[in-house]
Design a protein that fits this description.
Blueprint: E1 2-12, E2 15-26, E3 32-36, H1 43-51, E4 58-63, E5 66-67, H2 73-82, E6 84-87, H3 101-111, H4 116-129, H5 145-156, E7 163-167, H6 175-192, E8 195-199, H7 203-208, E9 211-216, E10 219-227, E11 237-242, H8 254-260, E12 266-271, E13 274-279
Parallel strand pairs: 3-8, 3-9, 6-7, 7-8
Antiparallel strand pairs: 1-2, 1-4, 4-5, 9-10, 10-11, 12-13
Helix pairs in contact: 3-4, 3-5, 4-5, 5-6
Length: 285
């Protein structure tokens, strides 16, 4: 998945709301990435754009070989059905209440005219993967919130999409259930190599995701990478990076700006293989 200078502008009556402001982001096949940020920062807009629900206004946005800016309506239907899976925050929103777990998973396959035997085999495989092999015939009302979300994951994977998107998938779950759901995502990633991108505010989830990207004011600003340690007794290392966009611009963290009283202009020099930034009123003496 690749985006460069991505813009999304919503028009409401005579108003224009800019949700994405030149966002740059690259995600490799098989990664698990968390997207975080304040309300209104553009997280959900990015997810909806990647899912094919929203059309970008400008810039570049690619998922695999699919150019999202040039995608026609018919292509978007095919894309959403076969190339990307999506999970909503509310477990009940992902499922049809009058179908049991297996029937919910089979529905996307039915829409693509898959055979009965293929539907049953695939749905059983997925429900066993998410730990619900003994709940195939249970309707959503008979399942807990965590179990419903497990079924939703299975539904989203029915057509073997290479990309899975999740909008606050643990937002309505208790801590232990949220942890269990995260393990399901990891199992899916390891079993199928599925790329997983999730929006979350859950700190426990964020600590377990290897790559966390922060969106601020419609642009990517920071990236936290967890580097596992393979030495016995040593903790994993986390490093926070400031992101540089396609034009060479970077967003200095707000706390640094405040501490140095940086406003509009700074001195920038290259020293000893480092880029050094000074506030405008810095003294060289």
């Amino acid at each position: 998945m690749y985006s460069r200078g991505l813009f999304k502008i919503y028009k409401v009556a005579d108003l224009e709301v800019v949700a994405l402001r030149g966002l740059d982001l690259e995600i490799e096949q098989g990664e698990i990435v968390a997207i975080v940020g304040a309300s209104g920062s553009g997280k959900t807009t990015l997810l909806n754009t990647l899912a094919g629900y929203d059309t970008p206004s400008a810039g570049q946005a690619w998922v695999g070989q699919r150019n999202l800016l040039e995608m026609k309506a018919r292509d978007a239907v095919h894309y959403r059905r076969e190339e990307v899976g999506f999970i909503w925050q509310q477990p009940s929103r992902n499922l049809l209440p009058y179908l049991n777990a297996q029937e919910n998973v089979e529905l996307p396959l039915l829409l693509l005219n898959r055979s009965r035997s293929e539907r049953q085999s695939r749905s059983t495989e997925l429900l066993e993967l998410v730990g619900l092999g003994d709940r195939l015939k249970h309707r959503p009302e008979m399942l807990s919130g965590g179990e419903q979300q497990r079924v939703a994951i299975a539904v989203s994977l029915a057509n073997k999409p290479p990309l899975l998107l999740a909008d606050e998938p643990t937002g309505e779950l208790d801590t232990q259930t949220a942890s269990d759901i995260l393990e399901v995502f990891k199992d899916v990633n390891q079993e199928y190599g599925t790329t997983i991108v999730m929006v979350t505010h859950d700190l426990d989830v964020i600590r377990e995701i290897p790559r966390v990207v922060t969106i601020k004011d419609g642009k990517t600003s920071l990236e936290l990478v967890h580097i596992p340690s393979f030495r016995k007794g040593e903790d994993d290392v986390s490093r926070e990076f400031v992101l540089v966009d396609g034009s060479g611009r970077l967003q200095i963290p707000q706390e640094y700006l405040n501490q140095l009283n940086i406003r509009q202009r700074v001195y920038v020099e290259f020293q000893d293989n480092k880029v050094v930034v000074w506030p405008e009123d810095h003294s060289y003496e």
